[in-house]
Amino acid sequence: MHRITTAFALAFTATLLFSPSLSRAHEIHVSSSGPIKSLTEARDAVRVWRAGDGKDKAEPIRVIIADGTYSIPEPFTLEPQDTGTSTSPITYEAAPGAKPILSGGRRITGWKQEKDGLWSAEIPEVKSGQWYFQELWINGRRATRARTPNKRYLHASKPALESRAGAPEMKAPENTAFYAKSEDLKALEPLSAKEREDVEVIVFQTWQIARHRVAYLEAPAGYIQFTAPSRWPFLVYEAGQRYILENFRGALDEPGEWFLSREDGKLLYKPLPDEEMSKAEAIAPVVQHLLVVKGDPANGRLVKYVSFKGLRFHHTGYHIPKEGHIDSQADSKIPAAVMLDGAAQITFDRCEIAHTGTYAIWFRNGCTDSSITHSHLYDMGAGGVRIGEGGVDPNPAGRTHHITVDNNIIQNGGRYFMGSVGVFIQQSSDNVVTHNDIGDFFYTGVSVGWVWGYGESLSHHNKIDFNHIHHLGYGVLSDMGGFYGLGPASGTSVSNNHVHDVQGYRYGGWGLYTDEGSSGVLMENNLVHNTRHATFHQHYGRDNVIRNNIFAFGSEAQIQRSRSEEHLSFTYANNIVLFDSGVLYYGQWNKPKVRMESNLYWDLRKEPIDFAGSDFAGWQKQGFDRGSRVADPLFVDAKGGNYQLKSESPALAMGFKPFDYTKAGVYDTGASDGWRALAAARTYPEVDLEPVPLFSYEDDFEGTPVGKPLWNARLDVHNKGDSIAVTEEKAKGGKRSVKVQDAPGLPNPWTPHFNFDCNHKTGTSRVSFDLWMEPGAKFNHEWRNKLAKYEVGPSIDVQDGALFSRKKELMKLPVEQWVHFELSAALGEASKGTWVLKVVLADGSEKAFEELPNGSKTWNTLEWLVFVSNATEKAAFYLDNLVIKNVVP
I need a labelling partner for 888 at 20 to 30 A (CA). Which of 465, 544, 581, 664 fits? Predict the structure, then answer.
């Protein structure tokens, strides 16, 4: 912190008396020509002025900043002594017509041309260990850190289930190392141990990424181990887990990429065709925070009544530690360029926060009655606005609430931390998020909550209204929403928003998403369209109301729910649902505790709509959708983006209340403001959807430690005498197999069981395994889809010394012998409604069964592959040499 010396106080007093620029005591001017050249000097000048005798302490103070770029070598910090009052507020503002930049960056100069089209700059502070950075801007554009591959991903093949000889010991091998193609890791082999320390392995983990550091490498074996374990085991949530190698010299092969060597302090850059490095502006970050408001809420010492107007906060970084960046969700560990604690009546208006390595702004601990309005947040390493923090402060003074985020453009985020959120509210209430344009993120637009389940939540009475939320996901992450709720949120409104173009990767590109325990949320008058998955999804929750919305063009489904509970999950009423692909309902809809009424459904394909396994009349007989209709809503031109209703629309007769969805998003504050035009000016890249790798599995369990379960299966085990684990008790070949142990007194006859999430929809799927049955064991194996009322394809049962399919006995089978099974079925349009089975007995004799009928006539996708023990007493079966494959012609 900059301290005022006696000499500075005397010099400032003289300036105050004799400088024309300070002829009005309540105005303090900052300019690059001085005498006050920085915000820190201006802050100190405010302190001196307010401490002086004979001054009107009730007079407002204006710190007026002239045009130019002001270097911020350390954060500009305000403490309780820098507070304003209601009668003497303090404003830090741009001079009329000026757009001053407060930059935490440093310009890189001295560029020299190298071979291979590269340019270099020597940075002595990097070589000496005083500076290192992970962001670089060339002519205002975020340059790309050297990476491979340049587009899309590399793929892991399997996790490391036990420590490898010669490698450092691991407590959680499946979270800390994996195997991949040896040729994909070969580029790291020539690197020195020091160079490998700076390599980052970006691992994509459904809704979050991890940035790992390399601890150990055996490229010929395709083995890579990290310095710290990831949040989740590898290859559990994703088949062919995606990863990228970043930040090493060998990856610098694409125009626009750069690499910084810590060893020789040399920055290398490969210019784009239109860049002339002798004239280029290259800036790298020096600081992590530009502005810190450092109140002390626990002791009632706040920073209050301070405003920032028309200022531009640019260029901050973030240093990844040796352990890497491991996060659970929403990049919740990442701070912001502007940090506020213990702040009240603090406002940001017409500001700009850009070119950050972190979130843009965070009202963190003990912040109240503050706002950010009419501001432009863009090019962010993480997300936009954070409000509150994850824990519940037992001292109410430490809790954040009543923050307003209005009329802001929040675009182009998650450029380094891809799991970040446009507006992220944690354990915070009574906030207003309205009329913002939020787009161009790889994850969620607005997230509210931070409670998993029905625990204590401070996220209530938040208002998320009239926002334009769009262009999210890009097929990079999964499990996201335009709005994402997490936990109880009574009194929260999510209304009058326009949400569109949400593209998840494997699943979860949803428009409105109430996740675990979301309760008490009202969603009305929203226009939601063009989502890769459902337009509305509730995982589980209580008493949410979804009414008078327009939901259109969910690619795979329109309405999804994922868990049945005994209470009312949600009310879905007076909505219009329009689609031309996918299904209406997806997930668990078997006797759901939901209230559906007065909705209008229309499939532009004009095909009969499946209502959770029933036709419309059968669905209504179950007590759902009273007053609802299947009819064309008669939009003016929904395909063309006009969702106004024609006067003869049946929706109007049903009580649907039209709303003006064009009011969502930012608004101009004057005739020449141009704010709406600026929000609409950004262009968005085409979604480069990499096909999701088809799930495959081949395991003889010899590499799985005894006592561990199958590494990529979902297990249902109660641990009451039942278990699923690798054992050396029996094996078809080698030493190990999987033992599935049943037990009496379990709550369901289908426990224990395990399943794989396959996502096979075309081609031919094949499954083979060896099975050994104890007397009394009961084995079931089924292929299922994930429709609202799931359908079954191939299925077999083995019990009482016989093999059955659909309750029909196919053949006798010996007990306590290994029997080999091979099942295959064509999927998608190639499905003929039948499948093939081959059985090989221990003596080598074979028996084939052709054209066995699927369990459901319309089944044609393999999404869940299930293995079940149906015994109700102590009995076990063993499984070995399990192979799951899909072949697409």
Answer: 581
